[in-house]
Amino acid sequence: MSRLEQIVDLEKRFLLPTYNRYPVGFERGKGVFLFDFEGKKYLDFVAGLGVNALGHAHPRIVKAIREQAAKAIHLSNLYYNEYQGQLAERLCQLSGLDRVFFSNSGTEAMEGAIKLARLAGHRVGGDAKCQLVALEGSYHGRTFGAMSLTGQDKYRKGFEPLLGDVTFVAQNDLAALRAAVSADTCAIVLEPIFGEGGILECSTEFLRECRSLADQHQAALIFDEIQCGLGRTGTIFAFQSFGVTPDIVAIAKPIAAGVPLGAFVSREPFASAISPGQHGTTFGGGPLACRVGLEYLSIVEEERLLENVAKVGDYLHQQLQGLVEKCAATREVRGRGFIQGLVLDIPARPLVEQGLAEGVLFNVTQDTVLRFLPPFMLEEKHVDKAVRVLKKMLGKKRKKQTVPQPADRAIA
Ligand SMILES: Cc1ncc(COP(=O)(O)O)c(C=O)c1O
């Protein structure tokens, strides 16, 4: 049995069957490449589902982890550590918001954000101010609170009852939004760009209306930037690309370059609703994760990665657009920067499998959308390679029929 077959066999016997993995395993990575157990090289357009924004084995991240692991990995939130406050300060400076809570994952960041919005809501409007407004097609995670805000049946089915106070509206439907938000709303929750939902952007007009309704009703506007945030759109927060600032923003994925860390950042009027003991975590905000988080932000700034995301992101968009014009079964390109989707007329999983054979890692979401979440140092030559592979897999568009069809002939 090969090493991969042994691993597959072991997992089959001992893991809960929650994942439908691709038939490949990786041993290590370097920059925008991964290497499997046989040493085959793959160009990575998945980046660990958006986590590996700095690619693999970035020397500064490796150094920070080595140094900090030798000092203290974990201390607990009973005590102070050197880096939690520093990372919170950086996130507040970058977002323009006021206070941070550190969790271990994106889902937990969402849970904390909902709890904070409920506390703040109850403070201004009593028990009745508990209603949540979220979007159809959204994804916020798989714990009960986050799942209750997730507007897709496939994630909710079988787990009911969920939180009962959530109203879903269609993305960018202003009338439905206005009808859903009331004095009893404590939060409007959304991803400015749907990630798992298929790379669909909220319109600026819709985000502005969310902002204005939240203000009018003293509700929290919560943005889930777990996938689209921290640089992926070409600005450090996606909301800066849209020019609408939330009251609370949730982040996770790349913040500690693969060391589990999530956070939500809140404006003071909401942050002040919570007091000691009302929320907490054993692991969140540990010295290792926070030190790496600080290093992540420094690297993004010092290596001018946001500029690269914007520039190469535009190039990626153009090249994908070229595929839509030339290749069969392609419909449209969505997204911006390094969060983009190529919408197909056919299931995308077989293409991902063919991509493995060609040495390029792609990802699929919503069955027919190829999702691109590459590392921030991706170059145009890497885009060219991926596009060549996609072109080969998709084949040419058939020429428009010029010969009269049988039905036409009958009429004629
Ligand atoms: C927009 C969004 N919210 C929440 C989550 C959940 O984050 P995690 O898997 O870190 O718990 C994800 C994960 O993909 C996400 O994309």
What would you note in describing this structure?
The protein is of the alpha/beta class and 412 residues long. Helices cover 41% and strands 18% of the residues. The strands form 4 sheets. A 7-stranded mixed β-sheet has the order 4-12-11-10-7-5-6, sandwiched between helices. Helix 14 (349-358) packs across helix 15 (380-394). The longest helix has 22 residues, at 305-326. The termini are far apart. 48% of the residues are buried. Pyridoxal-5'-phosphate binds next to helix 5.
CATH class of the largest domain: Alpha Beta
- Unreliably modeled segments: 401-412
The largest beta-sheet arranges its strands as 4-12-11-10-7-5-6
Distance between the termini: 65 Å
Can you count the beta strands?
A: 17
The tally of structural domains comes to: 2
Mean pLDDT: 96
- What share of residues are in beta strands? 15-25%
The biggest beta sheet reads: 7 strands, mixed
- What is the CATH architecture term of the largest domain? 3-Layer(aba) Sandwich
**Overall 3D form:** globular
Helix content: 40-55%
User: Any idea what the radius of gyration is?
Assistant: 23 Å
